[in-house]
Design goal:
Layout (H helix, E strand, L loop, with lengths): L1 H13 L2 H26 L3 E5 L4 H14 L3 E4 L3 E5 L3 H10 L22 H21 L4 E9 L15 E8 L7 H14 L8 E5 L17 H27 L4 E10 L2 E10 L7 E14 L27 E13 L1 E10 L3 E11 L1 H4 L5 H15 L6 E5 L5 H70 L9 H15 L1 H14 L1
Length: 516
Amino acid sequence: MEEFLKKILDWWKNLEKKKKITYIIYALSLIVVMIILFVVISLPHYTLLVSGLNETQAGQVIAKLDEQGVRYKAGPNGSIYVSNSQKYELRMKLASEGVLGNNSRGYELLQNQGFGATSFDKQVNYQIALEGELERSISAITGVSFARVHLVIPPKTYYTVGDNAIPKASVMISLATGAQISQEEVKGIVELISGAVQGLEPKNVRVVDNYSRDLSSSIYNDDIGSANTKFQMKQMIESYYTKKIQQTMQTVFGFGNVVVMSDVELNWQKLEQEERTVEPVNKSSGIILSQQQESEQTINSSNNSGAPGTTSNIPPYDYQTQSSDRNTGYSKSKVITNYDINEIYKKTIDDRTGEIAKKSFTIYIDFLKSGVTETEEIIKNIKSSITTATGSGQDNISVLSLTFNREMDNEKSKIEAENLRRRKLITYVILIMVAIVMLLFLLYVALLYMRRKKTYTLIEERKKKLEERVKEVVGEVKEEPVELSPSQEMQKRLEAIVDSRPNDVVEIIKIWINTQ
């Protein structure tokens, strides 16, 4: 390590002045860039707290953030940004305070009714509470940021409700950015509202989004012949057959080597035929409309009588024997029957709405790219398999062999490779910058170490030279032997001990001082 640092120092000393200035400028530039990166990284990063708020709601949220001393940034479309570290904590606090989220009042409104509230006031409060509860439920659906519900409920009175008193409802939903809502979800919203309001039918519920689109218009529309429904059904069927054929054939010829075009003709013909047949009436059959029956019977009988005149009444009485006659009479009956005309009414409906009238398919295959050899037999087998799978005739199936244009795929691959190269380059630059900073730091520490070591080495060398010089001078000057006294000899020994063992002497002195 020391030799490496010495080589670096020697290389630095041997450099020209211009090169030294250039390297110093590079080093300073790198340091400035690192400082800027450090400052940028240390700045607070703002993340989205809420979005899609109106001005009133955004003002309430900002007021609460000011009260809490939180730094924020306001953006377009009612968006508010806060520090990333405080995002979830602030959401919980604002939601608990009733500022963030749905501010609709629900059934808790009914708990604050006064004793003087009239029956009409209670009905209005109940309607407002019901609207608030429905708004909360609808806002909980995925993709819906908030909702407004307006109910038209006939007031309950002691009088008879008129014919026009029908409950109705209107819903306005605001979709989140990029969110879509399906017809099944709209139908679920309609069913939710109709089930919560007594007497409300689903057909009397209207759902509108924040783009003024009537989402409930096609839910209960039984007219399948509308233009929008026709196009959607045709598109759905064509997409089904395209996906079915393409996925199957890509398994054989490889991904990206098959393109399928489907065309479906739907039959929208609806025939209604009415037939009325009138048959004549005969005496043996027919529909009896009315029947009248009359019967008459007469019976004549003979009566016994006396002789004419007064003679028979004067005594003596004379009796004359009467002769007896036979009874006579007659009977008559009559039936009058009125027949209705025999009428046969027949209505025939031939509804073929939505039936598939014709299916045709065009399949483009890149045989060259797929590696499959194009032959008549293969094309015939392809048509046969598609006919079996779709029920279409082979005359309506076309198989074309083309070489696909791969320029778009190549451009896409180039763009992806370029983006990957840029990401790698950025990563390498960052790693190199970090390595250079670390190297400069290590170089600085090494320079300090070398400088201190060099100073220490110079001091030691000067000390050795001085000692050698003293020895040379002392060796030239021959001192005469001097006789020392016992006390001087003791002092000299002590000085030798102090020079050779200074730490022990210091400890002895400390012990001696502590014992005094």
